[in-house]
Every structure is written in C-alpha cells, then in structure tokens.
Design a protein that fits this description.
295 residues, alpha/beta, Rossmann fold, eight-stranded mixed beta sheet
Length: 295
C-alpha cells in the first residue's frame, strides 16, 4: 500500500478500523446499527448494502476487479461468489479497513492507489464501479474524464467480460421532491446539470447509454434499485417494472435521506403511481444498476 488518503469520511474511518480489528466486531456492529447511527456508520455497516448484488448469478470460477471498494461493504459479496477478487481503493486507510474487515477471505487482494497509476497485468471477468463513475471528473485528469475512465475500466476486462455500474440518476424522483443532490448537497443541482462544478456528477439513462456505447459497450442491461442503490430493498428491470399497487414497496416513498436534511415538496407516493402509468419509471428511478458488455 503506497497511497495517500485522497478520499475520506473523516475520523469515523479510524473507528471503523477499530471495529473490524475487534474480536467482538459483529456485536459492535449490531449495537451501532440499532442505536440511530451516524450517516457514515449506517452507510458502511448496513447489511442492506449487499442487496445491490447479492442476488446476481456470478460464476464461481471467475474473477472480479472492484474499483473504488470503499470500506468493503460489497467486497464480501464478491468474495463469497467468485474465485478471485482484487479490490482497489484510493485511500490507504480504507484499504486497511477492507483488509481487516475481510481478513478471513483468502481469495481477496487489496491495493491502495489510483487505478490510473496501478499496473495490473491481468484481465478480469467482471469490473465493478459501485458509486465510483460519478467521481471520474475529480480523479481522471483528461478532457473527457467520464469516457476515458470507462475506457480504462474496460482495459481490465476480458473480451466477454461485464462492467458493473451502480450510480445515482440525476433525474431521480427524490431530487424533484425535495432531496439535496447526494454529492454537492444542493437542491436541484443535478437536474440543472451541475451549473457551478462538474468535477462530480451523475447522469440520466440516455446519457449513460451514449457514453457507454462510445466506450464500446453495446450490450446494456439496466436495473432500477429502490429506494436507491445504497440501501436497496427491491430491484426492478426493463423486463420487470412495477405496476400500481403491486410489486413496489410504498415505504420507499417518500425517500428517507439519512445523510442530509430534505424538503417535502409533493407526495412521492402519489407521484410514483402517475409515473408508472405513463411508463416513465426508468427515467425517474433514483438509481441505476447497469451490466455492460462489449457485444
């Protein structure tokens, strides 16, 4: 590990390292989650995080490169399903947390650093970008950072490999209804296309399809985690969309934002029915989960 801590949630990460270093880590986590935890603790420790890919039929003999592994909340899913996992994280401290959190996994390699500066002479069956693509403008220093970052991710894939992306939708219903943009903390910032700063940004479905196709991914499968990809309780697809009064948990609306305050401009429960009737659920989904293949 030879990385500085370019990205951090602050002192809470030292707490996380202490938790996962403890022999009583499971009990500590249970107690933390049952006592109205802070946003970072909830985000890094909630078992709901694993729902985003715990259902997916990975092939046990295959390998995965996890770019931007955070504090390892989803790494466990990969390790339990695949032969080999390589997790890369910008932060040295976060990399230590991942290593400690999954010290019993002998099929895991953890690397600290920027993927652009790391030499990996290997191709993988899967490359994952879970909550990562939106930061390309900040950490990929080119004229077209999001496109170039996708090309870089593709360079680690086998020809028939799959790129996995989870990201917020810039037109998510929660943003119209009064939630602040997840990364900037500003109201309507993504809807207005980030007028002040595009270092960190999300995209609509059409934009994602276009940049992925430009990067050579022509076989795309979109899924719609509800209420979002961070704490999903349901995941829909273009082949299985919700209908009014069925197949969708109304408790997902209004969206509960644990990280920052929000306003309540209109009833999301009423709006979602109208959106479903007009077949716009994919446009207003709060998040996307995408499986992208070259062909």
């Amino acid at each position: 590990m030879n990385s500085k801590d370019f990205y951090s949630d602050g002192e809470v990460e030292n707490d996380l390292l202490s938790i996962f270093s403890s022999k009583n880590s499971k009990l500590l986590i249970k107690n933390i989650l049952s006592n109205n935890p802070s946003w970072p603790m909830r985000y890094h420790l909630s078992p709901l995080r694993k729902n985003i890919l715990d259902w997916y039929d990975f092939k046990s003999e295959e390998s995965l490169l996890e770019i931007g592994a955070g504090c390892g909340a989803i790494t466990e899913v990969f390790c339990s399903k695949l032969r080999k996992v390589v997790a890369i994280e910008l932060s040295k401290l976060r990399s230590e947390i991942i290593s400690c959190r999954h010290k019993d996994k002998n099929n895991l390699t953890v690397i600290a650093g920027n993927i652009s500066n790391i030499k990996i002479n290997e191709k993988f069956d899967y490359v994952s970008l879970i909550g990562v693509l939106e930061y390309a403008g900040k950490y990929t220093h080119t004229q077209d950072p999001y496109f170039d970052f996708l090309l870089e991710a593709k360079s680690f894939l086998k020809i028939n490999g799959i790129l996995i992306i989870a990201i917020e939708n810039k037109f998510g219903l929660k943003y119209w209804a009064g939630c602040r943009e997840d990364h900037t903390g500003k109201f309507f910032d993504s809807i207005e296309n980030y007028p002040e700063n595009k270092d960190i940004q999300t995209f609509g479905k059409y934009e994602l399809k276009e940049v992925l196709k430009r990067a050579g991914f022509h076989n795309l499968s979109f899924y719609y985690p509800t209420p979002d990809y961070k704490f999903p309780t349901e995941i829909f697809s273009d082949n299985y969309l919700p209908t009014i009064g069925h197949n969708i948990t109304t408790s997902s609306f209004p969206f509960r934002d644990y990280s920052q305050d929000r306003k309540y401009i209109f009833s999301e429960k009423l709006a979602i029915d109208n959106i479903i009737v007009n077949r716009q659920f994919d446009f207003f989904s709060n998040s996307f989960l995408i499986f992208a293949k070259q062909k």
